[in-house]
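[step 3/7] fold_predict: job queued, chain A
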Amino acid sequence: MKRIGKFLKDEFLTGWTPFQIILLLVALTLQISLGFTIGVKEGQTIDINVVLSVLAPALSFVGVMLGAKQRISTFILGPIGGAMFAYLSFATWNNMSNFIFQVGIGIPSNFLGFFLWFKNRDNKGQALPKRMSAQGIGVVIALFISFYLTYGFLTQEWRTGGTNSISLEQHWIDALVLAVMIFASVIMLGRYVEQWYFWILANFAQIALYSVMIATISKDSSAYGGWMTPATAAVSLVGYIASQINAIYGWLRWFKYYKTLPKYKIAVLTKEELNELNVMNKLKYQTNRFFTYTQKK
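[step 4/7] structure written:
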């Protein structure tokens, strides 16, 4: 129990900078207070959906801040916030992209991420970052664009027609959010600094999405089934603006820390040594060699 207590203390309570503390307190205060205050003023019953719609983004924001701090505890809060978002996205928000992401990628990847980061930390418990190779970046960008366009066109008719449909503009922003979050989550598992470019893009897309929602609801209060108002959407918007600030901070922190590490090298195996590896270790070795930048002699 003492080891667990020390682990939780080190993960959640230590290493916070004044900037992080101020950002955390301001973001949580705004999200929680505005969420409940607006709900009461707009005559909403404070039911489980209202409570979860306030707690989910607040909990997830703490998680992404821990990720910026290179803490594996980001993967402890991840499944909890992800489960809340999955329920809300399916039951009340009509946000199928977020539901698909949370159930298919977000929640499962947290368990894998905890294991992968746990094995690759420094003596302070911080995940050790890597940089992605040029060919790795090229492949990721190509796959990202392909997935975004394929998903967008395949689901366009389904999402923009029929009951609870959304506008064409919102559909493509929604598809972008899904694509970016999937790729950011996968790259995050490998501890690559480049993950932060995707998180920054994801936050830009979310900010744009909620801005479109606010504009749409202002013109038609019955949009999205009438469950959301400009004020409630603004609460989520505040959360994503705070997440964007954190993502920029995370990129700067990870990049700065990466430059202090010894140059990353991958041993080159002979054909005989490669053949001795099992399938999983061989795939891990070849993937790491292709996607990870290594210092040239």
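[step 5/7] annotate
The chain has two domains: 17-261, 264-297.
The two ends are 47 Å apart (CA to CA).
exit 0
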